[in-house]
Amino acid sequence: MKHYKVGIVGATGMVGQRFSLLLENHPWFEVAALAASGRNRGKTYEEACAGRWKMTAPMPEKFKDMVMYDATEDAEEIAAKVDFIFCAVDMKKDEIRALEEKYAKLECPVCSNNSAHRMTPDVPMIIPEINAAHAAIIPAQRKRLGTKRGFIAVKSNCSIQSYVPALSALLDFEPTEVAVCTYQAISGAGKTFESWREMVDNVIPYIGGEEEKSEKEPMKVWGRVAGDHIEPASSPVITAQCLRVACSDGHMAAAFVKFKNKPAKEEMIARWRGYQGRAQELALPSAPAHFLTYFEEDDRPQTRLDRDLENGMGVSIGRLREDALYDYKFVSLSHNTLRGAAGGAVLMAELLCAEGYMDR
């Protein structure tokens, strides 16, 4: 496998910090540039994150003395130094769209953790075990952008990674209606209990924009490449509620599903336990050996016990049972800053490298 030089744009935020930990000893990727807002330009990474380091693991020594770039003003210099970037900036959506297209047009591919381009019709939103084939839209996007190598690919919202994987293993039973309630950790807002004291012993029944994402993004993930765009799936219909809960990491979902062809409970569990995707076929470095794990115990999965399953890249499922209104209900759990954010973006980048989209 080739080795790639990469940049982390938005390196000082919570997701950017998680990228630094995941890439510290990555077998394929070497971090060659760290960038954030202009106020950090010229500082070392250690100086830029002073008093703001939110990870439980310490900052990697190898990055402490790296000098920060301005993500916007130094884009040309960064693009010249790296093979592609990971983007996790905290900016307005129109500014993010412009910034990511700027890098793409500099012939620097973008693996984005941001939501700004998720619904752009020719930008693939990839969960490697589910819709790796959506990378085939990249040539159409390059044609629109006028690039030979540059493009943008995004990972999905962290909340849908708790229940969409479980449903994806069951799509040939034709789910028609899904109701889901997600219970989302505070790190999804870039917060810790130290910085967000009002979340201690609390639940907030509102996360701005999250319910719309939870209802619409799965349809794009389950869609198909159609010429110059990705055509979203038309079913199932999804309704969602999203709550912020007093957990540091881990998004849990309570899902209810109705099928056109109702499977047996044993069939569903067998599908989950046997599910493999392109990430496993290619044996990508960050791919979990078991993408989906089903627990028989009545009180599993639990956030504290199970969010780190498969190094935080596995999805755990439990409490499958028949329902009085729908066919079945179950709960599922994913680690929101690993599978749901930085880890999912790293896995997506590994897929795009393995499939040749990052070649110079």
Automatic annotation (TrEMBL):
It comes from Agathobaculum faecis. The active site is at 158 (acyl-thioester intermediate), 251 (proton acceptor). CDD domains: ASADH_C_arch_fung_like, ScASADH_like_N. This is Aspartate-semialdehyde dehydrogenase. The lineage of its organism: Bacteria, Bacillati, Bacillota, Clostridia, Eubacteriales. The keyword Plastid does not apply. Belongs to the aspartate-semialdehyde dehydrogenase family. The keyword Cell membrane does not apply. GO terms for molecular function: aspartate-semialdehyde dehydrogenase activity; NAD binding; NADP binding; protein dimerization activity.
